[in-house]
Design brief:
The structure holds 2 protein chains of 2 kinds. Chain A is mainly α. Chain A has 8 helices and no strands. Chain B is of the alpha/beta class. Classes of the chains: A mainly alpha, B alpha/beta.
Chain lengths: 238, 283
């Protein structure tokens, strides 16, 4: 954890515990999300409908965690009236779990698309094309959660930079898929499914980027959203 | 993207450029158009120094909140602004204190007139043992602000209206001021302060003895008064400072540690000590 933003040290030990507890729950939710995304991808690549089904079912766990953490944040706001870094932590957590929940929804989409395609062998071959994009996205999500856990602005900024790679990969992928569809319109039905999965992965990249931006806000109190990577880096190092 | 930009060491935010020194006040303690300016003010009671090198500008038509732990010198600083410390024999003050450029401690400055220009509201409502009317009329009478009774009536009514009390007391202006509730008594004291048309109002914990409703009414009033007066408020309530002020100054052990816009101080303070105080951590 960055030394500038220790959670502990409050005169009220209970408040220390509440903040630490809520942070741990976010990390646990992050862990579950990583598993969901990994399993979503595994379901696609290994044509394993059992895993895909579990991903769809487990989205409910993610949703319940979001509600639970939200509720605790609300209680802290009402009872503790946090200020400064405490306030930023609670706000950053509320935003982060929203992004995590949406990443969960995208993982669920991967599972659903796999289940729709289970009887079609050709479809799973198309899914292999997502492998590289999937790797990039998993790495970015992992790094985003890591930067949140360690409250590390440098790591967060490096992770934000990965989003451009993911977008480029996604664009290349779409061009490739469009070519497929033009060459052989019979594949459109399957290829569309692949493109929806690619889209879901690309969205996971966007949400991971949001989480990194929340980390910068949490640690430095600076809002670096919607200004572009170069300005983000400059602002964070001012 | 230039790869080197990512390697840059994180520096503090721009208002915090002078971060790191406890000796010097950090943040924005100076203003271009200050109503009151203090420079290098040192105050001591006998051997004990209460304030060290306080340099702070107080903005026109603004509310500035002075916060800090008990004994940090914020009330002492407040009392310097209208020479309330003159009555304490062992109190010594050095440095510059200017009200619109005039030296507050100049020999030609009459403390009675100064206190009419820089009024004060105290922690405990302290109405005189007189009627509501006479409480408000007291200041205008001794300063000769009204030529006749009609003018005096006008001043009393306007002051009570400005303090938001008139509607509640208009039928009993002759009742004793002490018969009012705590919140009403405090608003009576504010009306008494306003009656001599001050330029600055100093408030020392004006709502600490009041219930949340009376507190909310006083805070609303402070916000309205800001249109016409400059207000300096000392408060132990962090929430109150955050709600009513535009600027906040954090005092610690006689030093002004940090000054800045209230919204920044409460979301992103620069100094570790400010952060610790407002988040309720060990200092």
């Amino acid at each position: 954890m960055n030394q500038d933003t220790p959670l502990g040290g409050h005169i009220s030990k209970r408040f220390d515990n509440e903040l630490e507890d809520i942070r741990h729950q976010v990390l646990a939710m992050g862990g579950l999300i990583e598993t969901q995304v990994a399993n979503g991808l595994r379901g696609l690549f290994e044509s394993d409908s059992d895993i895909a089904r579990r991903v769809v079912q487990d989205d409910d766990k993610v949703n319940r965690m979001e509600l639970d953490i939200d509720d605790q944040c609300l209680k802290i706001l009402a009872r503790r009236r946090p200020a400064a870094s405490d306030l930023r932590l609670v706000v950053a957590i509320i935003k982060t779990i929203n992004d995590l929940e949406r990443i969960g929804d995208q993982a669920e989409k991967l599972g659903r698309n796999q289940l729709e395609l289970v009887d079609d062998d050709a479809g799973s071959l198309h899914f292999m094309k997502l492998e590289h994009l999937g790797e990039l996205v998993s790495k970015m999500l992992n790094k985003a959660l890591d930067s949140f856990a360690r409250m590390d602005v440098d790591e967060a900024l490096k992770t934000i930079a990965l989003d451009e790679k993911i977008n480029a990969e996604f664009d290349g992928m779409m061009r490739q898929l469009i070519t497929h569809m033009m060459e052989d319109p019979r594949t459109i039905r399957n290829v569309l499914r692949v493109s929806w999965c690619a889209r879901a992965l690309e969205r996971i990249g966007d949400h991971s980027k949001n989480i990194c931006e929340h980390v910068v806000f949490l640690v430095q109190g600076k809002d670096v959203r919607h200004i572009g990577l170069k300005a983000q880096v400059e602002m964070a190092s001012e | 993207m230039d790869k080197n930009v990512l390697k840059k060491k994180n520096k503090p935010a721009s208002p915090c450029l002078s971060l790191g020194s406890f000796e010097a006040t950090i943040g924005e303690n100076m203003l271009n158009d200050a109503k009151i300016s203090t420079r290098d003010v040192n105050v001591s009671y006998g051997d004990k120094q209460a304030i060290y090198d306080a340099s702070l500008d107080i903005g026109r038509n603004q509310v500035i909140a002075l916060i800090g732990p008990s004994g940090c010198g914020k009330s002492t600083f407040l009392r310097c602004l209208n020479r309330m410390n003159d009555t304490i024999a062992i109190c010594k003050i050095s440095g510059k204190l200017l009200l619109d450029g005039e030296d507050i401690y100049a020999k030609k400055m009459d403390p009675v007139l100064l206190r009419a220009r820089v009024g004060m509201v105290f922690q405990k409502p302290n109405p005189f043992p007189k009627s509501i009317y006479d409480n408000v009329a007291y200041g205008p009478r001794i300063h000769g602000l009204a030529r006749n009774n009609a003018e005096l009536d006008e001043i009393v009514i306007t002051s009570l209206e400005k303090s938001g009390l008139f509607e509640e007391v208009k039928d009993r202006l002759n009742a004793p001021g002490t018969s009012l509730s705590g919140g009403q008594q405090q608003r009576l004291c504010i009306a008494r302060t306003i009656a001599v048309s001050p330029e600055v109002i100093l408030m020392d914990e004006p709502a600490s003895a009041l219930d949340p409703i009376a507190t909310a009414i006083i805070e609303e009033l402070i916000d309205e008064l800001r249109q016409n007066y400059t207000i300096v408020i000392v408060t132990h309530s962090m929430q109150q400072a955050a709600r009513v002020s535009q600027r906040t100054a954090y005092f610690h052990m006689g030093k002004i540690v940090e000054v800045g816009e209230t919204s920044r101080i409460f979301t992103n303070p620069c100094h570790k000590m400010t952060e610790n105080y407002i988040t309720g951590k060990f200092g």
